[in-house]
Automatic annotation (TrEMBL):
<dbReference type="InterPro" id="IPR033910">
    <property type="entry name" value="GluRS_core"/>
</dbReference>
<dbReference type="InterPro" id="IPR045462">
    <property type="entry name" value="aa-tRNA-synth_I_cd-bd"/>
</dbReference>
<feature type="domain" description="Aminoacyl-tRNA synthetase class I anticodon-binding">
    <location>
        <begin position="478"/>
        <end position="524"/>
    </location>
</feature>
<dbReference type="InterPro" id="IPR049940">
    <property type="entry name" value="GluQ/Sye"/>
</dbReference>
<keyword id="KW-0547">Nucleotide-binding</keyword>
<dbReference type="Pfam" id="PF19269">
    <property type="entry name" value="Anticodon_2"/>
</dbReference>
<keyword id="KW-0067">ATP-binding</keyword>
<keyword id="KW-0436">Ligase</keyword>
<dbReference type="InterPro" id="IPR004527">
    <property type="entry name" value="Glu-tRNA-ligase_bac/mito"/>
</dbReference>
<dbReference type="InterPro" id="IPR000924">
    <property type="entry name" value="Glu/Gln-tRNA-synth"/>
</dbReference>
<dbReference type="InterPro" id="IPR008925">
    <property type="entry name" value="aa_tRNA-synth_I_cd-bd_sf"/>
</dbReference>
<dbReference type="InterPro" id="IPR020058">
    <property type="entry name" value="Glu/Gln-tRNA-synth_Ib_cat-dom"/>
</dbReference>
<keyword id="KW-0648">Protein biosynthesis</keyword>
<comment type="similarity">
    <text>Belongs to the class-I aminoacyl-tRNA synthetase family. Glutamate--tRNA ligase type 1 subfamily.</text>
</comment>
<feature type="domain" description="Glutamyl/glutaminyl-tRNA synthetase class Ib catalytic">
    <location>
        <begin position="56"/>
        <end position="373"/>
    </location>
</feature>
<keyword id="KW-0030">Aminoacyl-tRNA synthetase</keyword>
<dbReference type="InterPro" id="IPR001412">
    <property type="entry name" value="aa-tRNA-synth_I_CS"/>
</dbReference>
Amino acid sequence: MAALVAMPRMRMKITVFPDAFPPFLCRSYRPKKVSVFHRRRSFSVSASSTKETQDQVRVRFAPSPTGNLHVGGARTALFNYLFARSNGGKFVLRIEDTDLERSTKESEEAVLNDLSWLGLDWDEGPGVDGDYGPYRQSERNSLYKQYAEKLLESGYVYRCFCSSEELEKMKEIAKLKQLPPVYTGKWANATDKEVQEELQRGTPYTYRFRVPKEGSLKINDLIRGEVSWNLDTLGDFVIMRSNGQPVYNFCVTVDDATMAISHVIRAEEHLPNTLRQALIYKALGFPMPHFAHVSLILAPDRSKLSKRHGATSVGQYREMGYLPQAMVNYLALLGWGDGTENEFFTLDHLVEKFSIGRVNKSGAIFDSTKLRWMNGQHLRALPSEELTKLIGEQWRSTGILTESEGSFVEDAVQLLKDGIDLTPDSDKALSNLLSYPLHETLSSLEAKPVLEDKLSEFAASFIAAYDSGELLAALEEGHAGWQKWVKSFGKSLKRKGKSLFMPLRVLLTGKLHGPDIGASVLLLHNGGKSGIIAPQAEFVTLDERFRVLRKVDWEALIKNRSPLETAATVST
């Protein structure tokens, strides 16, 4: 049997008003008669702290393995991690798998993998031994039963033999009377004889916690400030089901207390649970931890972020090509800031800067566009070798290239990286460079100024330069050779600036826009020689581009522009 574990003393002030505090909430009290439990007394407990931290900071993240790790859960884990690391404390991972029907080993492994991918390594938990294990709720049932029996013996809870039908009838009556659907306390005053008769019959029963009929609870939330509840809205609640399984609020309280958790940082949807948990803390004689309830993550329409808004799990973003450091950076900014305009943080920087006092209590909007932008910032901040390896492997895995390294890969990454925010974006960027949509471009209205600037004459001179071999010779000399040739070619045509480089771009790349034209043509030249580009990439080599150029019917192209322009005008 598990041993009872005592919490270390915390620096928290709990103010109790004796005149109004019911005797059964005093730890030393042992009732002689059942009837005293329902004296109409009130009580008030206030928990506050003048310091954000204490000598031993211990926080926990407690996911349920019933699905994927939601971005909201990931942010909660991150805030706990940052708080622990910034205060020299411990980050505990606890698996809340008491929902036996929905909990799966696969979900647990996925959650653990996602946390590891984000870099949120835990000090205690599954796979990491500690002094407060086991760290799965399913392995702690004997502990819950032990504490439940302690509460039963001391009078804080009682056996309730109400059937499901009886409980449903109580709800219906309360609804008719426009009252909260709270338990009426049918078995709260039962005599020992009545209880024994039901036990002998084998009637199923639950354990219900006795809630004072009057009074209030007040806590000083580290994010929300003072929060209070009236007890008259809460009936006697179940802590152990009739099948012997503990209820969530009871498990959580026992776990946090026996694991010496000093700060409970969790989502605001758990705020209502604090009332029940505080009553259990008091009944068991454990001091309450500090509470901090983080705001929800909202969709752009300010509703709760859900699957209908797109990807919501960490695993989905991982598969989409997002970097863990970008996810961590963005999640940290959902409700927190360091007080400056800086938005770029590494995990180490966040540990240095994080303070729970700067967490905003208002809901944070999840902006997928900004997340994408931030990923691009982190992607381009990677060391050159790491970025080249990452994108090179992407190109090989998708079949664009036959190899993932080499000078072509290095040059291509450096040329295209500014247009890549996600690793998969690199496929489109490279495929776009390798393509040659000349006819589509020349037929567009946007190409009209270039076409009318004597492009046909420019093309004739350009083809002649290629056929003579002078352009290829220049490209063999690299960037310096290209620059020298361009300057000479422009001088021969009395062109410079845009009037020189725009037609060069169109004729060489088949496009009006793109990365640096010099680096692009050198890459196309080298790509044709390297043999690294896979056949399915549909690469149009320089030689093939000039074959296309020779076949352009410039006169027909110019004549056909009139009906195109007319159609565009009508459409507009």
